[in-house]
Amino acid sequence: xxxxxxxxxxxxLVACAVGAVIRILAGPSAADRLVALNVxxxxxxxxxxxxxxxxxxxxxxxxALVYDIFGFLGLLAIARFLKEKAMGAGEDE
Length: 93
Hints:
The protein is an all-alpha fold. It has one domain. The chain is built from three helices and no strands. α1 (2-26) runs antiparallel to α2 (30-55).
C-alpha cells in the first residue's frame, strides 16, 4: 500500500512539473515565468524527498537540501536582474 501511494505521488508530481514547464515556456510575463520556475524547483524538491523515502537513502534528502539552497539563490539572482531591468527601462523615459 505504501509503495502504491508513493508511486501515485511521483506521478502527480510529474504531472505538476509538466504544467509548470508549460507555464515557463508560455508565460505572458517574466514574473509568471519566475514563479513557475520557483514552483518547478519545489516540485523537484518534493520528488527528491519522496524518492529518498522510497529508496531508504538519506543521500536524496541531502541532495534535496542543497538543491533547495541553490534554487533559492538562483531565484534571488533572477529577481534582482528583473528588478534592475525594470528600473533601467523606467529611467529611459
